[in-house]
Amino acid sequence: DISQWYKTLRVPYNSDQDTVRAAYINLVKRFHPDSKSSETDVNKFREIERAYRNLQDKFCRERYNKNDCEGEYGLYYNEKNDDESIDHTAPQHRQYLSYDGVGSGTPSQRQKQHAKHRAAKAVENVTNFRINKMQDDSNKSLTLKESRKKAKDIQTKFGVDRLVEDLIQESISKGEFDNLPGKGKPLKTLQRTHNPYVDFVTHKMNEVLIDNGFTPAWITLQKEITEHREKIKARLIADRGKIGPLPLSQEEQLFWEETK
Questions:
Q1: Are 212 and 126 in contact (CB under 8 A)?
Q2: Nearest to 127 by CA among 159, 104, 82, 90
Q3: Which residue, 2, 28, 25, is CA-closest to 13?
Q4: Contact, 208 vs 122, CB < 8 A?
């Protein structure tokens, strides 16, 4: 009985939570078994504690109902839908998660568009790098005006190149190059130089880097291997010239084995 709980804690009926808590603390000091009070009573203390816990649960339920599912300290918050009759529907337009969200159409079309986007991005990055490098070098020997003029010339050069490329693409789309021999076939130079085991986009990016003065790591490594092989071959030829023709003597055979 709720009234009995208030009576046990010796507070008026419908007292607030702070009043109940203060009364509980005072009674605990008097009846707790570990207190030094002369009124210590285990059974009385258990009755007081039970009444206090029940009233705390009552306050919690009242607050939960009052705040519409918000609960004490927001621990029992439940989100409510404004209209539960509306079923969830998937969005009609979703951003592509593959190919960095570039392109549209079928997967194969988007792959081609993504390859062109990467190549254009690489050209743009190389252009910006060259402009920044030119500006850094020019600050040491040229005035600010000359530096800006040189940067503008580089931008103009690449702008003209892009314009020419656009004009070529426009002419191709109009069919002005249909009478050229080899139309629709890959270039012979591409067939000769392109490694079939290398991705086409990677191959084109390496070409862009090489054309702008950069050397990919695999080209540097191949050059080092070739130079090292030529040095070894030259050393073996020189050492072989120090000994006579076949058959070799025992000393010459020993020398040749040590050389190898």
A1: yes
A2: 159
A3: 2
A4: yes
Report the distance separating Cα 255 and Cα 259, nearest Å.
Answer: 6
Residue whose entry in the numeric block shows the structure tokens 């009846």: 31
| Residue 229 tokens, joined | 């092989």
The pLDDT tens digits for 57-109 are 888 888 777 655 544 444 444 444 444 455 555 454 555 566 777 777 787 88
Q: How many residues does the chain have?
A: 260
Sign of CA dihedral 188, 115, 164, 185: positive
What distance in Å separates the CA atoms of residue 58 and residue 22, rounded to the nearest whole number?
Answer: 17
CA angle 233, 234, 240 (to 5 degrees): 90
Model pLDDT for residues 178-211, shown as the tens digit of each residue: 777 777 776 665 554 667 777 888 888 878 887 7
3-state secondary structure the chain: CHHHHHHHCCCCCCCCHHHHHHHHHHHHHHHCCCCCCCCCCHHHHHHHHHHHHHHHHHHHHHHHHHCCCCCHHHCCCCCCCCCCCCCCCCCCCCCCCCHHHCCCCCHHHHHHHHHHHHHHHHHHHHHHHHHHHHHHHHHHHCCHHHHHHHHHHHHHHHHHHHHHHHHHHHHHHHCCCCCCCCCCCCCHHHHHHCCCCCCHHHHHHHHHHHHCCCCCHHHHHHHHHHHHHHHHHHHHHHHHHCCCCCCCCHHHHHHHHHHC
The two structure tokens encoding residue 77: 């918050």
The three-point CA angle 188-192-196 to 5° equals: 115
